[in-house]
Every structure is written in structure tokens, then in C-alpha cells.
Protein: Tyrosine-type recombinase/integrase
Amino acid sequence: MVTETAQYSALHCFFNFKQNDEYLLISNTLRFICSILLAIAFYFILHLARHSYAVIQISLGTDIYTVSKMLTHKNVSTTQIYADLVNSKKRETANKISLK
Structure:
């Protein structure tokens, strides 16, 4: 006697997702790989959002100490990296201007 267990897609596991009222079948290995990839992608999206927020705040003139506390950095020197990025962009833009 062979018994079969239902297999669900990675989307169903995370979001209880249905398509055409039938569950999508997928192998356990592929479901595991998709789950890991979704978790990694989610981590990087949050990390990139954090970096973007810091650069935007510094470029708008927010104090480095304030941005450091918003990002919960222990040292202000960690936040200084974002200021260096903004300063290098300003230098590149200023160097493009040619006075004739």
C-alpha cells in the first residue's frame, strides 16, 4: 500500500497561497531551496533599505550622530562610511563642472 502526502509550494508555505483552487505541487528539495532563497532575498532587501535610508538622511543634512543612533550603531565611525560615500559623490559632481 502506497500512501502519498500532499506537497505544497514555497509560496503556500509562506503565504497560504492558492492558485486555481489547487495547490501547486513541488518537490521537498525544491521547496527547501526556494524557502532559503526567499529568506536570503528578504535579508538583503532590508539591508539595502537600511543603507539607502542612511545615505539619504546624510545627504539631506541630518547629523551623523543622529543617523548613527537611528541605525543603532555602537560607534559613530561606522556611520562615517555613509558620509564618505556622500562626500565622494559631491567631489565627483564638482569635478564634472568645467569653467571656461
The chain has one domain: 10-96.
